[in-house]
Design a protein that fits this description.
About 45% of the residues lie in helices and about 15% in strands. By secondary structure, it is of the alpha+beta class. A hairpin with a 2-residue loop joins strand 2 and strand 3. Helix 1 packs across helix 2 and helix 3 packs across helix 4. The N and C termini lie far apart (about 45 Å). This is Acetyltransferase. It comes from Gottschalkia purinilytica.
Length: about 100
């Protein structure tokens, strides 16, 4: 029987944030229309994830699932306008964050 662990992302180190972002981008890159470049998308989402608002499913050291949630006070992701502008340029970056 396989043993999985569910953990809050904030309780794990930075490498797990990257693994979570990689899983997210690899799974959803075909529906994210702001860029086709997976590395750009990873940079974008790495900077947006709020670890307090995510749970991950671990199989050993690997992130195999994720759940982000939000409420009236806090969201699972926060788009930083400056990072968006750096990745996409002034106009497109501003639109992504809007």
């Amino acid at each position: 029987m396989e043993s999985y662990k569910i953990m809050k992302l904030r309780d794990l180190d930075e490498t797990y944030i990257y693994k979570t972002v990689k899983l997210f981008v690899d799974g959803f890159h075909n529906v994210i229309t702001v860029s086709k470049d997976k590395e750009i998308l990873r940079q974008l989402f790495y900077s947006t994830i709020i670890p307090d608002m995510f749970y991950v499913c671990l199989d050993g050291e690997e992130v195999i699932g994720l759940l982000g949630y939000g409420n009236k006070q806090k969201r699972a992701v926060y788009f930083n306008k400056e990072i968006c502008k750096k990745l996409f340029g002034k106009l497109k970056g501003s639109l992504v964050c809007w």
